[in-house]
């Protein structure tokens, strides 16, 4: 695209490029955050946009900070539920244990254009791209804040941050002294949690946390009648342990050590097509049976079921309706040393990560080692920072429980070594204008070089009004699914492309912030995106179950699609009275993809993100000890993907209104009781439908039930 080349030229002409350290504001207690006004919230310092600490209101990016108090008042049980509050973020429950989270389009269970971090540690899964959210069920009471940037963050965070970044930041052990027990009981979910924190001495403290959760099965969708009958099969169990120590050496020097372990199970209903040992003869068995069905008025769906499911005895490649139990476990060890003074800062961070996940089709194991160094400083010209790091990820992907090895990757084991670096500068052009330029570089032993520049500027029109704009170039490196061969014994075989190229995005953003008074704030962002080299799946040979000698269809991967997107995101915060706060947001998204040849479709459909979203949140302190919180969410409909695969249930999603209510009672300073109702207006509703991304099959979405729970918190 000529426009893309022009923007790249602009980036390089403007490249006096620099960047810094992950620097959030100092840890704040829950009571401190409850007392913050809108002005004080806007003045919190974040580093997610550039790794140069800046006040939220002075950051030239679509940044939102979700505080611990907002999370508590929402009644959210996990991070995806809390993220519903963030303006412009698309959050959908795929099932009771699976989520699709993204911003500005191309949402999916594996949203591969969005980066999620936990205390600076990447949660991105390199097998399929995206995040297994059920494996990240952190204890919400330990979260200090969640910083979110909607829009490209690749210049500082590297590839895969095309559409945004989420950084979940947990609280310091110094800020969580004492003990806390949490118990929650409801019709859909149960939870028990424990935290205890103390001090080794005046300079060093520790915190131990444990969380256990169980969730009940939701309701099947209206099209769940194929196979073994209609069930959701989406219940889950999860346990997480963590130990954190913080040491303050004085003079701005500190050390964080964090160790975590988790394990759990998430059930799913999976459909996978598998080759039977000896298929029926087409001429003598299949053809007469189908003709007889048609003569008796059988529908297209009934004929499809006869050719797909084994109970009819007519399929060569049978669609297996599987009640799958996914088991997972993992752990990490993280250390971060930080030195901060008035004019400079530096950080060294290193972590080890291990995870294993096995389901019916695949046993995944991954080990990661990551080491990063970052340094920044400020002077009369502005703020500057740079950093570099190395990362090594080794995986092992083996067929699991399926007797026919539904998904078999080649090579089964692979190591990807990555070297990354960035530089950022924030220059004071005048008293009211600042320009931020930066570039990120990443070399991968599998995908090669990635250069990701950005230029951003902000103009303080007045103390209460800011105008900002940004041009960015980002990319996403291919996942293992795209670069490896998958040779399953099912209806389709995938030929991966080891030289498969990165997806690319050129973006323009314009933002406006206006705080007319301490009790009112407005935020508006408009954006325009140009995607190129998007991953497509080519159906080279269509599987035909009507052939007398059915053979698998053939799939291949290519960079065959381009897309455009534009949208607007509006949000406002209003402190109506000291005891009553309102927050509302609206987002519009329009995406169009270039016309693709027949039997070629994108890896992730443009139809997976809603055109319209609206939310309203009210937090009202009825008395000094009684709280009432309301959240209303409207999400417009999703159309069907129009996939050429033989899939069913791809009828799109109706628009829906979700209403959540929380009533909290502070019985004493140490004891809090809350009642939380979610999805109160409907018995059930569906929020998402997964695409057949997995060549071996795909999990079915479910209807999300209404839930009511009681939560008791005791501190000591």
TrEMBL record:
Give one Pfam hit by family name.
TonB_dep_Rec_b-barrel
Q: According to the UniProt entry, which residue ranges have a biased composition of type Polar residues?
A: 215-225
Give the bilayer topology. Multi-pass membrane protein
TonB-dependent receptor plug domain residues are 56-165
Where does this protein reside within or beyond the cell? Cell outer membrane
Q: Which organism is it from?
A: Neptunomonas qingdaonensis
Q: Which GO terms describe its molecular function?
A: siderophore uptake transmembrane transporter activity
Keyword Signal present in the record's keywords: the answer is yes
Family assignment? Belongs to the TonB-dependent receptor family. Hemoglobin/haptoglobin binding protein subfamily.
For this entry, the protein name equals Iron complex outermembrane recepter protein
Q: Where is this region: Disordered?
A: 213-233
Q: Which PROSITE patterns match?
A: TONB_DEPENDENT_REC_3 (PS52016)
Q: Offer one example of a GO biological process linked to this entry.
A: siderophore transmembrane transport
Q: Which residues form a coiled coil?
A: none
User: What CDD domains does this protein's entry cite?
Assistant: ligand_gated_channel
Which key words are in the record?
Cell outer membrane, Membrane, Receptor, Signal, TonB box, Transmembrane, Transmembrane beta strand, Transport
Task: Return the InterPro entries for the record.
Answer: Beta-barrel_TonB, Beta-barrel_TonB_sf, Plug_dom, Plug_dom_sf, TonB-dep_rcpt-like
The TonB-dependent receptor-like beta-barrel domain covers which part of the protein? Answer: 338-680
Gene3D superfamilies documented for this protein? TonB-dependent receptor, beta-barrel domain, TonB-dependent receptor, plug domain
